[in-house]
DNA sequence: ACGACAGTTCGGTGCTCATCGAAGGGTTCC
DNA sequence: GGAACCCTTCGATGAGCACCGAACTGTCGT
C-alpha cells in the first residue's frame, strides 16, 4: 500500500528544475561527477551536493567515490524507464499511449545509440569487447590503453597520440550502460572512435534522437578492423 | 526534446501530499467531486479547488461540470499507468523491474476488480451491459433505473427500495473504467450489487488487492440472473 | 611539503506555495 | 422566492526549501 506521502516524496525528488536536469543528464547512462553536474545545471557546487544527497537518499541515484571525485549514476534501468515515461508525457502530440512506435524506438536504442559522445547499446559493448583483445585493458574501474592499442586506435581514427591534448579529459574511461548493464569505452578514445564511425557513415543516426543504425559499410568495417559481426536486426 | 523545467513541472504536480492523495484516490477509475476529494484528503474546499486547477491545467486530470458539482477523473489510462509505476517504486522489496508478476496482476485487474465499492473491469462492464435490457437506462451521463429494474435489483440483492436511504448517495451513477474505457454501474445500486456478489461468493478477491475472480457459482449466477457468460480465462 | 583541486558543511537570504477563512456566485430542492 | 448546498475567488499567513558564499576536509600532482 502506497501512501500519498510516499508518492509525493518520490515526485518531489524530480520536482526541482536542477534535480530534473541532473536526472536528464544521467539518462545517457554515464557516470557524472558532482562538479560536472553542477556546471551542467548552472548551480554552485554546494547546491549540487545537496541535490545529490537527496537523490541518492531517495534511491534514484547511486554513488561511487573515487579519490576526490564522486561519481553518480542512475540507480538502475527502472529509474531510466521511469524518467523516460515522465519525459514522454511532457512532449505534446499524439501516440502518447505506450504505442508500438515507442516500443520499437526503445528497441532501436537498445541496439545502438550514442551515449553523450561515444557509442553505447549493444553496438558500443560489442566494439569494446572486440577491442579488449587489441590493447584495451580493463583496469579495475575503467579502461586503459596499451601503447600498441593506442597506436592501433590512432591509426584507425587518424589522430596523433603524441600531440598534447587540450583539457584534462581522460583518454579511456568506462561508462556503464543501463540497457546492457555492461561497461563500454568512453572518454576521449570513445569520442574519437564514435566521431570516426559517424564521419565514415559506418553508423547513421535514426531520426533526431540518440539511436544509431549500423550501415552496410559499418558491417564491413567492423569485420575488417575488429573481426566481429554485429547483428542489426532484433535478436530472438 | 524535454527540458528540465518541463519534467520538474510535471513532477511538481505530484510532489504535494494532498495532490498525491487526490491522484491515488482517482486511481480507482471513478469520477470524484471536488468536495469528496477535499474531505478525503482532509483540506478545506478552497484548497482542493486550487489543487484541482493545477492538476487539470497540467493535463493529469479532466473535469466535467454537472450542475453544482465538479467531477474530476484521471485524464487517460496512461496517467493511471504512470501513477502505478511511481507507486510501485515507493514500495520496498524485490521484483521491481516490470516483471511477469506485475503483468499478470495487471491482466487480472483488467478482467475484474472492485472500483471503490462496486464492480469494474470487463466483469463490471459485462454486468452493466446485461442490465441494460432489464431496467437500467443510460441517461445522458450516468444511469437511471426504471421501477421494474429497481424491483428486479431489489429482489436480487434482498433490499427494500421503499425504505428511506441514509445520506444522499445517488442510486445509480456511471463510472468510467480506465481499462475498458466504458461506463459501468456505480452508485448505491452498484455497491449493493457488488456486496451481493461478494457475500454469495460469486466473486472472490485475489490476494489483498482490488482484483477479483469469478467463481463457478458466479458463472451460474450470471447465467441464471442475467443470461450472460463471462470468460474467466484471459482472452486471446 | 606545498599548492591546486573536488567536494562538503554551515549559516543566512529570499522566494515559492500550501493552507485557511471569509465572502461571493451558481445550482438544486422545497 | 428562499434556504441549503457545492464550489470558487481573494487576501493573509506561515513553512519549506533552493540558493549562494565562506570556511573546511580530503585527495592529487609536483
TrEMBL record, chains A, B:
Which parts of the chain span the membrane according to its record? Answer: none
Q: Which SMART domains match?
A: HTH_ARSR
Highest taxon of the lineage: Bacteria
Q: Which InterPro entries match?
A: ArsR-like_HTH (IPR011991), HTH_ArsR_DNA-bd_dom (IPR001845), HTH_Metal-responsive_Reg (IPR052543), WH-like_DNA-bd_sf (IPR036388), WH_DNA-bd_sf (IPR036390)
Q: Which Pfam families match?
A: HTH_20
Boundaries of every HTH arsR-type domain copy: 1-94
In its UniProt entry, what is this protein called? Transcriptional regulator
State the species of origin: Micromonospora gifhornensis
Instruction: Kindly list the organism's lineage.
Output: Bacteria, Bacillati, Actinomycetota, Actinomycetes, Micromonosporales
